[in-house]
Amino acid sequence: MMKSCSRMKKNGTKSPSPTALLPKSPTGIQGLDEITGGGLPRGRPTLVCGGAGCGKTLLAAEFLVRGAVEFGEPGVLMAFEETEAELKANVASLGFDLAGLVRRKKIVVDYVHIDPGEFQESGDYDLEGLFVRLGHAIDSVKAKRVVLDTLEALFAGLRNEAIVRAELRRLFRWLKDKGVTAIITAERGRENLTRHGLEEYVSDCVILLDHRVNDQIATRHLRVVKYRGALHGTNEFPFLIGAEGLSVLPITSLALNHKVSTERIATGVSRLDAMLGGQGFFRGSSILLTGTSGTGKTIIAANFAQAACRRGERVLFFSFEESPNQIIRNMHSIGLRLEPLIKRGLLQFHSARPSLYGLEMHLATMFREIATFKPSVVIIDPITSLMDAGTDSECKGMVTRLIDYLKAGQVTSLFTSLTQGGHALAQSESAMSSLMDAWILLQDFEGNGERNRVLYVLKARGMKHSNQIREFLISDRGIDVVDAYIGPSGVLTGSARAAQNSLEKAALLAGQQEAAQLKREVDRKRAALERQIGDLRSDYEGEALELRRIAEQVGTRTFVLGTERAASGRLRGADAKVAARSRGRARNGNGHS
Amino acid sequence: MKTKTAKRRVSVSPRRPATLWQLRLYVMDETPKSQTALANLKEICESHLKGRYRITVIDLLTHPQLAKGDQILAIPTVVRRLPNPVRTIIGDLSDTARVLVGLDLRAAD
Fold first, then answer.
1. Could you list the residue range(s) of the whole structural domain that residue A583 is in?
2. Set of chain A residues whose Cβ sits within 8 Å of the Cβ of B93
3. Is this prediction's pTM over 0.80?
4. Across the interface, which of A122, A133, A158 has its CB nearest the CB of B94?
5. Is residue B82 part of a domain?
6. DSSP output for A525-541
């Protein structure tokens, strides 16, 4: 205890120094360096504890292998439980070439065999042999990293616990003096972190691994219990052991500080683009496509994928319900040819059954696929299938992390979501929808003995979007979005819309015919009127002619009468000429009437 | 460490086959513990295996690479290389009874 106290004191005086000065050794393990803020404490031992089969040895082995391969730090693996051959085989399953590294003198594996049945203890001893072996191994490759895999085997192998404890204390001190970054693994105890209280000796960094089964699905968790002198994520993080080693998935690294793009990308359906302010979605946004089964979610997703491929972008299509070949065949039926895009390497499918493994494994697989394929667009069809693989909060956490990851890489993501009949909005997407930038709802309209599809934009952050319901038709030429009939009798789709259209057409035609008839009538009336006017005019002209003739007759007669009177007056006397002329004119007038 | 000296002497013991006991004592530097162990080992061998044994002392300070071969962990350690099977005793051999059990000598006497 004296020794440990003095060391604690020493560390205690160190801890006030700025954390930035604490040198760290990157593990190269995905996510772990983020949680620990750069890796394990350099030159100090780290305790990794956990129950059986939770991945302690693999974590330690990955630390060594990555150290040797990626960071140029040779390592020593001292194994107490597995032989060198077993270890090589075990880590080979993670794609680590331990045997090759051993051949190239980058890593030394020393298997320490302790079997209490094979030796007797007699009198006092120390574990200098262990030190010698370790020291020799470290010196032979100039190792910077050391792994002691389950040092606790010493407790099982040696009867004199007092000696073991004293020697362990000396060992950790010795490792520090050597300046190697060490991982010591230990079995988890019932009450303590480790069965034999190793945490007492390793006070710099303690990592706890856990393997839990919820709903028949096992998930591994990692927690940094202690990290002296450094800030670290204190939460429990799910991690997995995949084909390329461990990956820890920090949920809370979510910092909401992604770059945002104002670039818009087309949806592949021009009318849908038009509904979204004419330009489609924002690049790097997350899009949710909700609908009951058979509403055409996959088709819209495939259209979106094709549009992206046409722009020369890469698309990664995660399918959790259909096999790639099935999707290709089905899309072919609506005139969407996906094989050429796959051949050109622009489109890649990744299909997996949701129940194949746990949510975390799915997420990690997706992360890995995304990291290797580097797509611009990711489609997940449907996200709801994954929801069944975990609890609600886990799912939300997973979607959050996925969206976070995609947004950080400016990857546009489209999630389809299957809702169970009834009211589509009342489904559990409320949890997910808040994470989404755009939400398009696909719906069935039943009536008139048929089922028709409509879509509308429920939300589209940061852009003007149409508030109208559109009907969309799926034909062998693809998707066509048409205006649904929205009138006093509600929304009409399909044949009802067609019927309504023809009704309106008929009404229009009838109106036109009526107008034409009216015009003909008016024309006829005007013709009749004009004919009447013509008759009247000819009557009038006849009478006027008569009048002129009569007037002429009267004039002639008067003249003749006057001439006759003058002649008779001349006969009566010339003296009466003047008087007679004036009188006679008046008399003649009277006499004539 | 291994010498081909003609130390092989035929034992006349009727119960035990005539074998030379090859013992290795692993030590680390000339520490008191190592000295004690060597002294104890010699004493036990003299009294039980007189003339039929050979002790090789291996100092890991000068030959650290030899520790791996015999799976040496503790110091001092005695390894009985011959006769078979290999047997190991750790400690300064102060508990003679345990050493005899460990070396399987109890039965002989």
1. 498-589
2. 122-123
3. no
4. A122
5. yes
6. HHHHHHHHHHHHHHHHH
> A158 to chain B: which residues are within 8 Å by CB?
74
Residue-wise DSSP of A432-462: HHTT-SEEEEEEEEEETTEEEEEEEEEEETT
Report CB contact under 8 Å: B91, A114: no
Q: Which residues on chain A are in Cβ contact (under 8 Å) with B40?
A: 123
**A122 has a chain B CB within 8 A of its CB:** yes
Do A477 and A513 belong to one domain? no
How many domains does chain B divide into? 1
Report ipTM (2 d.p.): 0.79
A159 touching chain B per CB within 8 A: no
Torsion angle in degrees (nearest 10) through CA of A103, A105, A106, A110: 80
Give the total number of structural domains in chain A: 3
Domain ends where: A146, A167, A194? A194
Residue A274 sits in a domain whose CATH number is 3.40.50.300
Q: Which of A8-12, A180-184, B19-23 has the highest mean pLDDT?
A: A180-184
Looking at the structure, do residues A366 and A395 belong to the same domain, yes or no? yes
Shared domain check, A411 and A324: yes
The closest CB to that of B68, out of A110, A114, A121, belongs to: A110
Task: Please provide the DSSP assignment of B37-81 as one string.
Answer: HHHHHHHHHHHHSTTSEEEEEEETTT-GGGGTTTT--SBSEEEEE
| pLDDT over threshold 60, residue A489 | yes
DSSP notation for A268-337: S-HHHHHHTTTT-EETT-EEEEEE-TTSSHHHHHHHHHHHHHHTT--EEEEESSS-HHHHHHHHHTTT--
Say which amino acid occupies A458. L
Q: Is residue B72 part of a domain?
A: yes
Tell me the chain B residues in contact with residue A138 when contact means C-beta distances shorter than 8 Å. none
Interface probe for A, chosen from B33, B73, B75, B106 (most Cβ of A below 10 Å), is B73
In a domain, B25, yes or no: yes
A441 in the same domain as A544:
no
Instruction: State the average pLDDT for chain A.
Output: 81
